[in-house]
Design goal:
Layout: E1 3-15, H1 21-33, H2 40-43, E2 52-59, H3 67-72, E3 79-85, E4 88-92, E5 97-111
Parallel strand pairs: 2-3
Antiparallel strand pairs: 1-5, 2-5, 4-5
């Protein structure tokens, strides 16, 4: 059998105050999967835990993201989270605060 990607969902999330990259990444994942239902696994007679979920997050400071916390927030199958440079920081020079924007790609793979 061969692993095939069945789903690719994209999302964006923000933390408007405080620059919390993990919070922005979680919101990006939620945005990506908000309208998805993974009923296809059961329709194929497969256990949803047999799906592999690969998440890629893009933020300006990847080392600030708690990838384990993001993985714990997802429900099905083995989950991998990779964090890379991307997204956008929007500084507020008047207050020293910044808004951060994270991008997420959520892929669901299955052996077929």
């Amino acid at each position: 059998m061969t692993m095939r990607r069945f789903i690719l969902e994209l999302g964006a999330g923000t933390d408007l105050h405080g620059g919390d990259y993990t919070k922005a990444a979680k919101r990006a994942i939620d945005d990506a999967i908000r309208h998805s239902s993974l009923g296809f696994a059961r329709a194929l007679g497969r256990d949803p835990q047999s799906m592999q979920v690969k998440v890629t997050i893009g933020v300006q400071e990847p080392e600030q993201v708690d990838a384990d916390a993001l993985a714990r927030g997802l429900a099905h199958g083995p989950i991998s989270v990779a964090v890379t440079h991307g997204g956008l920081d929007v500084p507020d020079e008047a207050t020293g605060d910044k808004a951060v924007i994270a991008s997420a790609a959520v892929e669901v793979w299955m052996d077929v």
